[in-house]
Fold these 2 entries.
Entry 1:
Amino acid sequence: MKIKSSALLFFLMITLLYNHVLFAQDVSKNERPNIVFIMSDDHAVSAVSAYKDWLSKVAPTPNIDRIANQGMLMHATYNTNSICGPSRAAILTGKYSHVNGFFKNEKGGDFDGSQQTFPKLFQEAGYQTAVIGKWHLGTAPTGFDYSKVMVNHGGQGTYFDPVFVENGKDTIVEKLRHSTAQVAHDALKWLANDRDTSKPFMLMYQFKAPHRPWTPNPKFDGLFAEDLPLHETFNDDYSGRLAASQNMLEIENHMNRKDLKVPPPKDLKPWQIHKYNKIGNQGEFWTPDDTLQGAALKYWKYQRYIKDYLRCVAGVDEAVGQMLDFLEQNGLDKNTIVIYTSDQGFYLGEHGWFDKRWMYEPSFRMPFTIQYPSKIKAGVHNDDLLLNIDFAPTLLDMAGIPIPEDMQGESFKKALIGKRYDSRDAVYYHYYEYPFWHKVQPHYGVSTGKYKLIHFYYDMDQWELFDLENDPNEMNNLYANAAYKEIVQSLQYKINQLQKKYKDDMSLDEMRAMTDVVIKRVYNERTNGN
Ligand code: SGN
Ligand code: CA
């Protein structure tokens, strides 16, 4: 007996030691990966050609595709709240909007930068951290050794003459370059000259483009001489979907003159130009030419819009290529995790729309691709149900930094490194902002990848059920169809479970009160930004 127990003790000690060595080997100090987290604004999956979606042939993104070819392309990455600031806050904290406190852009106050975020954890673990470009969270970035973020136009930044704040103090108006080129310039400069090369780095490289008003760098004006295709749902009539029918994000009815680059008449005063440009936002009728009306006018608006949007994407793609080239030329590519994503998806004419916010696929889904040549195999596709709140724990895990218990997302490191990974069976979503900007009714819902159930609850009580496999465009609301009763019940049960799990199990009145909250933003200067 005695011999047996000491042998057992010896065996246990050896196992512990071995595991310790394994862990240290897994992410040893001088092997810790660098991270370049690239995020654009409003870049739809359909406009990343690696996805081979409906625009891929006409609008290639060769540099973003380089990441997918050298690493993994995620096909089912979703957002917890499809709008800029809230998605960014969810990414930083690994927590849902109602937990991190930043649940709407408009009158929702600013991000509480004193809370735990993944950049802070990287910084505490000895990384050099930086954020360059779009931030859009109001308060100055925390957890970064270096920050240079756009603050004008309500924190959105502008395509030309963007105003940046560096390290929370110095204001710089950049007049030399288009916003995308400026962000690329600043990020490469920081990497090449300014960082502390004795430490690994975690850089957030974030673009304003291709956000509204879709103003590209003029060097891309020559792209898209031919007209671009229309999505098959371009003329959706929203039948069976009441919330969708009450929107204010139709290309036909809610695009303004500035969006479509209609120059104001000469000799207008600045306030008159502002007023002129905004016409269209509230559904006011306008046409650039009286002979253009009806379907032809809608078609004209779409072509103007989509071409400028994709020209902005071309700028982002170029900036991604510059980053990849830099890493390769400096021998940093093998040990650097590079991610390309967007804060959410976007409508490129699907359902006749622009903008985001809905839990329907084009805005719910996010592009996500990742390369890390020393650990992730090249050219792999992944279909696991992932969320933006998973990014923080995954990056921490990849760097060997402990994941705090209170993060609500889950690490998908195993999926990345080719190990067995049991992904979640459903993703939960909650959107709050209403009625500004685009009159999208607050809603929550769940998607299993096969079925999606949504509840629009603010000042209506509407449920929508979609069979995603047979109706990927979500045109056919099956909620009232008796044949789907059991599926509805099981999805409602799933919603209840996930609301409890994520602590979003409040009453509808409490949820409505969040929509009604009015807290001013800090970065709210009015500019005539373009
Ligand atoms: C601005 C846009 C809206 C857009 C929001 C949110 N109007 O207000 O169309 O939905 O931003 O975008 S604009 O005329 O000012 O461009 S987000 O990316 O910040 O969420
Ligand atoms: Ca956005």
Entry 2:
Amino acid sequence: MPDKKRLVVLSGSGISAESGLATFRDSGGLWEGYNVNEVATPEAWGQNPELVLDFYNLRRKQAAEASPNAAHFGLAELESIFNVQIVTQNVDDLHERAGSNEVLHLHGELTKARSVENEHLVIEIGSKPVHLGDVGEDGYQLRPHIVWFGEMVPMLEKAAQIVSKAEILVVIGTSLVVYPAASLVHYAPVHCEKFIIDPSTPELNSFEGWEHFKTNATEGIQLLTEHLKKDYG
Ligand code: APR
């Protein structure tokens, strides 16, 4: 049995939209309702940690109440044909709950919290809220295990290595406006087949060599799967 081709997915909040979770920059998106600088930066944490904790407690609760949609399941099913590696900007666990086995979270995970003092002291909290006074085993306050704006993206290099080995790259549900995540598309090998699934047009400086399924994630994954099965099925 020849090795399965490497199919790498770069996903964003758009893939979870049909699960009822808000994206960030669409109309009605999260950043319409909240000021990023008040809930998603280290400065915000310093000024009003309770507001930051409440923001992530709400998003954690919403993510726990949401279910994976057909796009998440469709990607998990592609593992029968391809070596699928998902690099996601999302902090929900819908890819994992749909059955995907290789998921790298660039921007952290809602289901985890960590010590403010030791970034390696990370604990699983599932859907539980974090409050001021909740401490890790080191006795320090717990914070969301999320990469805030202005913080380093520890998984970036690993993500770039994954994309650099892709034979098929699928960008789904991301506006590609946030760096360094958006820069990952430039690591794709020259001969890599490249697909976009998005009803609008992400920020790509050139669509040369990209096949764009200009539709939502659930329909787009179906169309992509049919397309790929013709060549690789
Ligand atoms: N199916 C597919 N794509 C969709 C759908 C859908 N049903 N609905 C919206 N989209 C697309 C939008 O057209 C847009 O291109 O999803 C994208 C969402 O873009 P953003 O709201 O900018 O979300 P994202 O790209 O994931 O944001 C990146 O920004 O705020 C930070 O850390 C946060 O990880 C996030 C990062």
